[in-house]
Amino acid sequence: MSAKPFSFKLLKTDGMARRGEIETPHGIVSTPAFMPVGTQATVKAMYPGQVRETGADVVLGNTYHLMLRPTAERVARLGGLHTFMNWPHTILTDSGGFQVMSLAQLRKLDEDGVRFQSHIDGAKYHLTPERSVEIQGLLGSDIQMQLDECIKLPSPREEVERAMELSLRWAERSRRQFETMGGPEKGQGLYGIVQGGDVPDLRVRSAEELSKMPFEGYSVGGLAVGEPQDVMLRMLDITTPVMPVDKPRYLMGVGAPDDLLESVKRGIDQFDCVMPTRAGRHGLAYTRFGKVNLKNARHMDDPRPLDAETDCPASSVYSRAYLHHLVRAGEGLAAMILTWNNLAYYQSLMKGMRDAIETGTFDDFYQKTKADLARGDI
Ligand SMILES: Nc1nc2cc3nc(NCCc4ccc(CCO)cc4)[nH]c3cc2c(=O)[nH]1
């Protein structure tokens, strides 16, 4: 029996900015969307219900981490990732290639896939496009990624071209495996990933070749790997115009609030980044007025909350003095409150952009938010 097919509705545009809705077997994702990172089946320091309360429609999981521990087969035996982590909404999973290259030891990449040793116990693995999609299927992921090769920047053109062309061949193999496993009939989606580094003609070729293949969405990969923001934005300027207009576009690993604003302006629909959660564990708060470093002694006697105007308790109930104390004392509650605040801020920024596109006022929202963010640390 077929489930409802995966769908994307483009509801409104304002310049290149897009307001849309993705429908997956686990609900609706309003776009532009920020996806909190839940690498090891948890958004660190948050209960799933709180993550939902901040406004998230989708969280990200990682093939690399979950295949090592607790393994995809065990998660499948326990009812799949939604049940395992008590997140009944949409889950997107990355395919593992990027994490292997940044975390695993003794990696060897060839035409067939990537061989590596676990960073946990040194056990040996061979991840291929087929195995990556099989793992994501076992997890029950609603939005799956092809296996690709994300090359570091800067790299010689020949290297960028080799990795981009390999990723295109892996895109076809990933698609075949996804269809063999009945992904489309389950209403799941598989995204192709555009590569091509910071080389304009390779970016365009990758996007054009990928667009000829049938994917439910298209990611922009190979960025947020240390390049300056203007290089990333220039790549978006030349890539999104040659991506399908009727499918979601997901910019992987991005980013800071300013990155989100600039990328939505350039036609991106989905984002994920560890910044709000990682910053929360390091005493850093994101607010409408910029970043606040709670480690700083200047907050020691400040009775004000981070932002009295929001309905998120993390931002409106606790004083900066208290948060400073918790951070200095190394109390676990600091990470919990700040992560909650940061995710709530990120979701409020996305909601602001969605509403602005709906009312045709994205440019005003963009200018005002840029000015607010430019005020820096407060
Ligand atoms: N499959 C696939 N996955 C990716 C994940 C990525 N994630 C990034 N960047 C994340 C970088 C990033 C890392 C750490 C922090 C916190 C700093 O405080 C922020 C951003 N770029 C990425 C590129 C790819 C890619 O091409 N293919």
Question: Outline of this structure?
Answer:
By secondary structure, the protein is of the alpha/beta class.
Please render the helix and strand layout as text.
Blueprint: E1 7-14, E2 17-24, E3 27-31, E4 33-36, H1 48-53, E5 58-62, H2 63-68, H3 72-77, H4 81-85, E6 90-94, H5 97-103, E7 105-110, E8 113-117, E9 124-127, H6 129-139, E10 143-145, H7 157-180, E11 189-194, H8 200-211, E12 217-220, H9 229-239, E13 249-251, H10 257-265, E14 270-273, H11 275-281, E15 284-287, E16 290-293, H12 313-316, H13 320-329, H14 332-358, H15 362-373
Parallel strand pairs: 4-14, 5-6, 10-11, 11-12, 12-13, 13-14
Antiparallel strand pairs: 1-2, 2-3, 7-8, 8-9, 15-16
Helix pairs in contact: 6-7, 7-8, 10-14, 10-15, 11-14, 13-14, 14-15
The chain binds the ligand Nc1nc2cc3nc(NCCc4ccc(CCO)cc4)[nH]c3cc2c(=O)[nH]1.
Explained architecture:
By secondary structure, the chain is of the alpha/beta class. Helix content is 42%, strand content 21%. The strands form five sheets. The protein has a six-stranded parallel β-sheet. It is globular and about 60 Å long. The model has no long low-confidence stretch (mean pLDDT 97). Bound molecules: the ligand Nc1nc2cc3nc(NCCc4ccc(CCO)cc4)[nH]c3cc2c(=O)[nH]1. The ligand Nc1nc2cc3nc(NCCc4ccc(CCO)cc4)[nH]c3cc2c(=O)[nH]1 is lined by residues 94-95, 97-98, 145, 148, 150, 193, 221-222, 224-225, 252-253, 273-275, 278. The ligand Nc1nc2cc3nc(NCCc4ccc(CCO)cc4)[nH]c3cc2c(=O)[nH]1 binds at residues 94-95, 97-98, 145, 148, 150, 193, 221-222, 224-225, 252-253, 273-275, 278.
